[in-house]
Model the fold of this input.
Amino acid sequence: MGRKYYCDYCDKRLPPGSNHRKNHNRGSQHINNKLFYYLQFQDPVEILINERLKKNCIKWTQSNSCLFGNNCKFSHRSSYELIQLIEQAKQNLNNQNNFDVHRWIQRKLSNGSILPESLVS
Done:
């Protein structure tokens, strides 16, 4: 008999066999779990762009709950959370702009290696 398959996204063990695994991977619960896993690594700039394109959810603003939850096509973020996202995005962009590749290479090659001509500016 084959080994059981473990799904990291759903925290479940599945019986051996490709049919069980394929059916599980096509399921809505697995797809949502996988989506939420990858969303946590999304860049703040991407999140901000996506949230700015959405309108505010009326149900969320009225009752602080929405039947669709994270699947809602409208935004559940408050103006304060959007301001925080803007600040995070600015900070990330500043960090990326201040990154000096040549200095990083020099530190990595601190053993006295000579840089190729193409990398010296």
